Amino acid sequence: MIKGGFAVVTGAASGIGQALAETLSTGGISRLALLDIDRVGLARVAAGLSGPKVTLHPVDLSDPGAIEAVFAALGDEALPIDLLFNNAGIPAGTPSWPDTELSRIQAILNINLMGVVAATRLALPLMRRPGGSILNTASTSGLRPYLSGAVYAASKAGVVMFTQSCADLAVRDGVRVNAICPGIVDTAFLDKTGAGGAARAPWLVERLKAGGALTPKAVARAAIALALDESRAGTYEVLEAKP
Ligand code: NAD
Hints:
Elements: E1 6-10, H1 15-26, E2 31-36, H2 39-47, E3 53-58, H3 64-76, E4 83-86, H4 102-123, E5 132-137, H5 150-165, H6 169-172, E6 175-182, H7 202-211, H8 216-228, E7 236-239
Parallel strand pairs: 1-2, 1-4, 2-3, 4-5, 5-6, 6-7
Helix pairs in contact: 1-8, 3-4, 4-5
């Protein structure tokens, strides 16, 4: 773990992002910036953290102007960012592809892919050079095609290819970019996959019966280990529950 470093986590109000914030805090990070659209959730997570100086940044990561404002504020601190976790995301939702509403398609691509690209773009000049590390949360859905979640799969495949394409930033800027591709993780995300975004999708219930789920803590630990592995740049790691 980076002792005394500065980490930024998106999607920090819940699930994997919350587990990242907690694991980084207990691991000795000294400065933590938490980003999420859920202001109440951010405050709840921060109340459970002790150790680092924590700042909360309520932001809609589908809004480029809002992301710009947050990173401008982080830049004002004149502290290099050691670790950026681009983790916020939303599921495919319903109705499934090809009946997905255009507004939902836009939201999936804007948050899951554009949010990652924009935060990377804005964080890069603020990262420690050399030594900064960016870790993107993709998904096994970005590696394995499936019809009903075609837009979500495309957004995560975009994150995987973006990550791989950033490999040479390690040489150019001294900043490594990698990704994790988790299978099913036991978070609130699962309850947003079904009808009206407030239930579990039937396919998910069947998959859980067959294979179980990862814990957000296990995913956070693996993500941090990959982010800190100085031999890795432009790579991804698949994480799946052991049945
Ligand atoms: P979660 O729903 O518990 O957390 C996601 C967080 O992202 C929430 O706090 C939410 O408020 C935030 N968020 C959503 N839209 C946002 C926006 N526009 N701006 C800012 N923040 C926003 O889900 P999770 O499982 O912890 O998901 C984290 C990441 O892991 C996502 O990118 C997701 O696609 C990915 N993932 C999840 C699973 C799974 O099974 N849970 C599997 C593979 C990948």
